[in-house]
Write a structure and sequence with these properties.
- It is a single chain.
- By secondary structure, the protein is of the alpha+beta class.
- The chain has two domains: 8-63, no CATH class; 69-113 and 139-264, no CATH class.
- The protein has helices at 8-22, 28-31, 34-65, 161-171, 181-186, 194-200, 203-210, 237-249, 253-258, 262-269; strands at 69-71, 90-99, 105-123, 128-159, 188-191, 217-229.
- Strands 1, 2, 3, 4, 5 and 6 form a six-stranded antiparallel sheet that branches.
- The relative contact order is 0.12.
Length: 287
């Protein structure tokens, strides 16, 4: 069996742990060989904890070198129920962001999908059982990117063949075929608003997405756009910010006008100053 080597600091922690476990030599853990299993589990926990910490530092350094801002998490976007998040809140960290030019930021981040799980546990006080809820991790870590936009868009997911079936139940729509065969081979498009999809995916947007060769998934929802891809090297996190910026830049201007924010929609429905709507009843109002 191949041995695993650890750095000196980890070796010291493991040595102290081993001494503590040895001091309880009569415990069931030791008698059953559980101490060996426990040491191994904690050893790998320490190892991966350290590895994760070094990755965090590397991403911070990459952000600083590119003149971008780094934050440990993103409490605003993590609460948005994106389909690419499985419709749940996501555990987001290692956020790298930069100004876009319209007063908003584009950001890249790493995330883990989680779901709330209800389990039954013994209740010593009541001599029975009680239910508790906790978040359970789903799958591995991924890289994402997002930006706020000045529009209020329907939910649409543009994903590869492998994930589209998993998302079908969430979005609740069949795949939409476009005129580009190359695009159709790379992506599935899921949305309940087919007219929106065809207007959104104009020639310019299709060309942009095809350049990713199907390695990136995209989503629109309310005033957010998002993309998701496999985990990248720390040095590439600023490049993901640039990819989000390109996604936002390629948004069709017609879409931005046809799907205004709720506040803008109310403003568009307001009659001009001095106009008396009573002559027209409700004809001037928009739905």
């Amino acid at each position: 069996m191949q041995s695993v080597e650890f750095d000196p600091e980890t070796e010291q922690e493991l040595s102290a742990l081993n001494d503590a476990l040895t001091s309880i030599g009569s415990s069931p853990w030791v008698l059953a060989g559980g101490a060996t299993i426990l040491i191994g589990a904690i050893a790998f926990w320490i190892y991966y904890r350290r590895n994760g910490a070094s990755r965090d530092v590397a991403i911070q350094q990459a952000a600083a070198a590119a003149g971008l801002h780094y934050a440990s998490t993103d409490p605003e976007f993590s609460r948005v129920r994106m389909t690419l998040f499985g419709g749940e809140e996501a555990a987001i960290d290692n956020v790298v962001s930069k100004p876009y030019g319209d007063g908003t930021d584009v950001r890249s981040f790493e995330y883990i999908l989680t779901r709330i799980v209800t389990t039954s546990v013994p209740d010593q006080e009541e001599y029975g059982r009680r239910t508790v809820q906790h978040r359970q991790r789903i799958g591995g870590r991924r890289c994402g990117g997002a930006a706020k936009i000045s529009a209020f868009l329907p939910r649409m997911v543009i994903s590869g063949e492998k994930t589209s079936r998993k998302l079908l139940d969430v979005v609740g729509a069949a795949d939409i075929e476009l005129e580009s065969d190359e695009f159709n081979q790379m992506f599935d498009v899921r949305t309940t608003d087919r007219n929106f999809a065809r207007a959104f995916l104009d020639a310019r947007m299709i060309d942009f997405m095809v350049q990713t060769e199907g390695s990136v998934e995209f989503e629109t929802f309310c005033d957010w756009i998002m993309l998701s891809l496999d985990r990248v090297a720390p040095s590439e996190m600023p490049a993901v910010c640039n990819l989000v910026a390109a996604f936002k830049t390629n948004l069709p201007k017609l879409i931005m006008a046809d799907y205004p924010l709720p506040s803008a929609r109310e403003e568009l429905a307001r009659p001009p100053a001095g106009f008396e709507p009573s002559h027209l009843g409700n004809a001037w109002r928009t739905s």
